[in-house]
């Protein structure tokens, strides 16, 4: 029955209604109409809104002859309120701190990542339009749009969570939405050790390497924990040093007191106004940084970052997508060649070897657990190839035959660093 139609005579109570997406959606539409008629501005007052929603739902259930059920009523009120001023079916998932990722493949298929493992979720949307309404509600405060003229969007929510959405005609199975939730409390070094991601002696080594101003590249696959490790290692940066961070979507939660956070900007609908990571790295070098942290190296900015590491900004760090530490070097070479760089392959490799000190490779195992798989020191060139000297391998610990390069009076105290790595873990 439509609220604007003549009310029917109340009937004998039936059993309590089944609380499903269909009933919630229908009540949502009816409540919206009545709230518009009431014109009380209730959306600005959550308590009054909830009370008015309760009244309207009770009236609707009574007119339809449903028996009164407090449990049913509360579930309906909660569902409608989520649709009115929240994110609908996603609300409980967003509130669950145990969930790290939410993946929507069309309205009828939702997956979540919990503890490093993907699992199907019982939450469903009514239809594709329902998905779009929720996503657009997320994007509205950010001034972003998602429609046929702009069918792909990437955004950072107010709480730091990242949202990527793509719709028809680019997505063939309905709206595809990926949400990477932002941790309210950043993990620390002790957390990674307790989780088994990093052995105690290796964590000590990595933190000392940061203190000694090693230039560090963290490599790994998607979701392997690159940004998490970068964030943890940044905690070893002395508070007196000025740090500039550059990210596509701000995720780093540095504990340092002197941090300047920069974020790239995508072009607008006319293709104008883009500010990329390369421009921000160049600008960062004019901001008197002691260190530069680049959230991810994946384009022209790689050359600028390597040059920054080579020109007095020791202790800078970045991440890169790669299947191994060796692949990380290959990817860096490829990205430098694809930039404006006009030098030879030999010069590209020389820049890499003089810029980087350590490559830390992280992996996510089949059990969902993330761990540091290997740590390598970037040596010089031999027969035109970048030399990578293994310092640590998961399961094997420190490489016992390794000899510390250089002397103790070198800028990086390798002998002191390696002694911490080769100490047995408790």
TrEMBL record:
Highest classification ranks of the organism: Bacteria, Pseudomonadati, Pseudomonadota, Gammaproteobacteria, Oceanospirillales
PANTHER family: TWITCHING MOTILITY PROTEIN PILT, TYPE II_IV SECRETION SYSTEM ATPASE
InterPro entries found in the cross-reference section: P-loop_NTPase, T2SS/T4SS_dom, T4SS_GSP_E_ATPase
Protein name, as recorded: CpaF family protein
Domain Bacterial type II secretion system protein E: 84-360
Entry similarity comment: Belongs to the GSP E family.
Pfam families cross-referenced by the UniProt entry: T2SSE
Region called Disordered, residue ranges: 396-426
């Amino acid at each position: 029955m439509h609220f604007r139609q003549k009310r029917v005579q109340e009937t004998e109570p039936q059993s309590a209604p089944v609380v499903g997406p269909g009933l919630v959606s229908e009540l949502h539409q009816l409540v919206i109409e009545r709230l518009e008629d009431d014109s009380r501005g209730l959306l600005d007052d959550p308590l009054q809104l909830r009370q008015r929603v309760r009244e309207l739902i009770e009236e609707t259930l009574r007119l339809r002859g449903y028996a009164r059920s407090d449990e049913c009523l509360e579930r309906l009120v909660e569902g409608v309120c989520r649709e009115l001023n929240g994110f609908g079916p996603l609300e409980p998932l967003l509130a669950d701190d145990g969930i790290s990722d939410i993946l929507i493949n069309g309205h009828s298929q939702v997956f979540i990542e919990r503890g490093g493992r993907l699992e199907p979720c019982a939450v469903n949307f009514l239809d594709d339009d329902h998905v779009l309404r929720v996503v657009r509600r997320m994007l509205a405060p950010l001034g972003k749009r998602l429609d046929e003229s702009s069918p792909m969007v990437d955004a950072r929510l107010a709480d730091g969570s990242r949202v990527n959405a793509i719709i028809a005609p680019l997505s063939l199975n309905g709206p595809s939405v990926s949400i990477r939730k932002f941790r309210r409390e950043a993990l620390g070094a002790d957390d990674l050790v307790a989780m088994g991601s990093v052995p105690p002696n290796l964590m000590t080594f990595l933190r000392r390497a940061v203190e000694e101003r090693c230039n560090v590249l963290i490599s790994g696959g998607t979701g392997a924990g690159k940004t998490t490790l970068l964030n943890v290692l940044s905690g070893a940066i002395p508070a007196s040093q000025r740090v500039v961070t550059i990210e596509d979507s701000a995720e780093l939660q540095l504990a340092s007191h002197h941090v300047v956070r920069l974020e790239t900007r995508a072009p607008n609908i006319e293709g104008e106004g883009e500010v990329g990571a390369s421009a921000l790295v160049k600008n960062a070098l004019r901001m008197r940084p002691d260190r530069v942290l680049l959230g991810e190296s994946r384009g022209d900015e790689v050359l600028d970052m390597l040059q920054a590491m080579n020109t007095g900004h020791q202790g800078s760090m970045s991440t890169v997508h790669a299947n191994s530490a060796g692949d990380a070097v290959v990817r860096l070479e490829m990205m430098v060649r694809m930039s404006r760089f006009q030098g030879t392959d030999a010069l590209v490799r020389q820049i890499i070897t003089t810029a980087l000190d350590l490559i830390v490779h992280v992996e996510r195992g089949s059990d969902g657990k993330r761990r540091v798989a290997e740590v390598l020191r970037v040596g010089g060139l031999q027969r035109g190839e970048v030399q990578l000297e293994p310092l640590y391998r998961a399961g094997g610990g420190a490489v016992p035959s390794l000899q510390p390069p250089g002397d103790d009076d070198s800028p990086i105290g390798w002998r002191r660093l390696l002694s911490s790595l080769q100490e047995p873990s408790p």
